Amino acid sequence: INRFVWDLRARPPATPGAEAPAAGGEGAPGGPGGGGFGGGFANLGFRVDPGDYTVKIKMGDTELSKPLKVIDDPRINFSTEDRAKKRAALNKLQPIVIQAQQAQSTIASLRTNLNTAIEAWKRPGAPRIPDNIKKAADDMLKKVDTVYVNWGTPPPLASSPGGAGPPLVQLPTPLNQRAAQLMGAIENASNAPTEYELAQIDILSKRIPPAADEVKKLVSEDLAALNNMMIDAKIPYIPPPTAGFGGGGRRGGDDEDADDPGGMDP
Which pLDDT tens digit goes with each residue over 60-81? Predict the structure, then answer.
C-alpha cells in the first residue's frame, strides 16, 4: 500500500536555480527531507484556504480522481475579506524571507571558508603565503564580520568555545530571524494581519534587500578579487559559498588550463 501525506500546504516556492517540489513530495513539507519554520522555512508553502479540491492518481492511461473538502475549525470566525488580507501580506513577505535566508546561509558559509583558509596558512609546514594575500584575506574577514551582524552574531563575538554564558556582545535580532518569526506569526493566526505586523513588513522590505546585496557583493566582488590574487600566485582559491549567491572566482577562458583552479566556474 502506498501512502501520500499532504499537510494541507500549497506547492512551495521555487528557490533560484531550482524547481519547486510538489506539495508534500520529496524535499517538501510533509514529505521526506521537508522543512518547517526553522531552517527550511524558505521551502514552505502556505496552508491552503478552505474549499473543494480534487485528488488525482494516474498510472499509465488510467486516472482516478476523488473530491476532497478542506474545512475550517467551526469555532473560528475568519471572514473571506480578512483571509484575503492575510494572503496578501504573506505573498508580500515571502520573497523577503527567502532572500534573507539565502543571505544568512551565504555569509555563514563565506566566513567559514575564508576563516578555514586563513587558519590553514598558520599551521606548521603550510606553504608560504605572500604577505599581500594574507593581509587581503584578513581585511576581508573583518569586512565580513561587519556585515555579519545583520544575520547573526559573528563568531568572535559569540560566547566562549565551551558555550557557557551569553554572547560577549548583545546584538539586535538577525533580519532573517525577524522575517521568519513575522511570517510564522501571521500564518499561524486566524485573523487579518495587525497594523504592527503590516508595518514590520514594510520595514523589513526596505532593510533586507540592501543588506542582502552587501552579502552578494562580498562574494561577487571581494571574494572574487581575493581569489584572483591567489590564482595569480598559484595558490588554491577559497571555495565560494555552496548556497545562496554564486560567484567568487574568475571564469576560465580558452587560454586557461581546464585543470587549473582559475579555469573553474565556482
Answer: 999 999 999 999 889 999 999 9
Cα–Cα distance between 2 and 131 in angstroms, integer?
62
Global pTM reads 0.75
Q: How far are the Cα atoms of 240, 246, 247, 254, 262 from residue 251, in angstroms, in the given order?
A: 13, 12, 9, 10, 7
Q: All 3 cell numbers of residue 109? A: 558559509
Report which secondary-structure segment, H or E, holds 193.
none
Q: Which helix (H) or strand (E) holds 65?
A: strand 62-70
Residues 6+ apart with CB under 8 A from 247: 216, 219, 220, 223, 224, 240, 266
CA distance 147 to 137: 15
Task: Copy the grid coordinates of residue 97.
Answer: 524571507
